[in-house]
Amino acid sequence: MTDVAASPFTMVGDPAAAACVGDSCLIPEHHPQAEVNRQLDEDLV
Amino acid sequence: MSEPIKVDIWSDVQCPWCYIGKRKFEDGAAQFGGDVEVEYHSFELAPDTPVDFDGSPRDFLSQRKGIALDQVDMMLDRVTSIAKDVGLDYDYDHVHQTNTVKAHELLHFAKSKGLQLEMKEALLKAYFVDGGHVGRVADLAELAVTVGLDREEVVAVLEANTYLADVKADVAQAQAYGIQGVPFFVIDGKYGISGAQEAAAFAGALEQARSERDAPERDAS
To answer: What one-character-per-residue DSSP string does A13-35 give?
Structure first.
């Protein structure tokens, strides 16, 4: 959603929250299991 | 008494997550409980859309994005359901897909009159709930009257493109900040929040900004 490297701000909140990018307003696949899967992928759990 | 926490919000009128995010932000600001000053900034998601696009968002998504109609219907149903959870009755059967640059010009004019927040809410409600057209000058002037703006003055500034440069400056600022999607919230010039976050995320960022403001005062005492 945002080019974090270019952002002068400290980003807070869920980076996968729903937003519109370009003319596309897609619904993110984001729910607790998706979060667990991400953490598994990153060896965090 | 301390200054209110400034919140700058980049948003587009035809962005479903912006209206949902607005409600969640308002909920978060209420949980926070302190003084908050909100300013909306322009972001055009589809600036090449014709004002009189002959179709609905359903047609727009299928024609422009090549998404199958049944998939579009599922997406819109899902967004409508999420909107309902925050008290918004989206009516996609009657939404007029359009170009929003004039709506953004109107928001800048409303800001000059101290009525930007009222105008923003009226535009989002007109677009998503009431089936209003937010691209044509006459319709925008009609809507502007409902928040207390003068019809003739609105028509004059929109036809003269008086605030077009302000709209483009907001869009350019967003690009400079690396903002690629909306809604995007900047809390007190420090914290960036992207998307329709839960209310707690907004409340937490506002609280953090307030505690940082208070810290120098505590250190000095």
So the answer is: S-TT---EETTB-PPP--SHHHH
Q: Which A residues 1-40 touch B at CB under 8 Å?
A: 1-27
Task: Tell me how close the Cα of A26 comes to any Cα of chain B, in angstroms.
Answer: 8
In sequence order, the β-bridge partners of residue A20 are B182
Widest pairwise Cα distance in chain A = 36
For each of the domains in chain B, give its residue range(s) and CATH number, in order of start.
5-220 (3.40.30.10)
Per-residue pLDDT of chain B (221 residues; tens, 9 = 90+): 579 999 999 999 999 999 999 999 999 999 999 999 999 999 999 898 899 887 788 888 888 778 888 988 888 999 999 999 999 999 999 999 999 999 999 999 999 999 999 999 999 999 999 999 999 999 999 999 999 999 999 999 999 999 999 999 999 999 999 998 999 999 999 999 999 999 999 999 999 999 998 886 555 55
> What predicted TM-score, i.e. pTM, was given to this entire model?
0.89
Q: Would you tell me the crossing angle of helices B151-159 and B101-112 to the nearest 10 degrees? A: 130
Question: Measured between alpha carbons, how far is B60 from B67 in angstroms, rounded to an integer?
Answer: 10
A12 CB neighbours in chain B (<8 A) are 191-193, 201, 204-205, 208
CA angle B23-B26-B29, nearest 5°? 155
Task: Please state whether beta strands B181-182 and B191-194 pair in parallel, antiparallel, or not at all (unpaired).
Answer: unpaired
Q: Could you report the predicted ipTM of this complex, rounded to two decimals?
A: 0.85
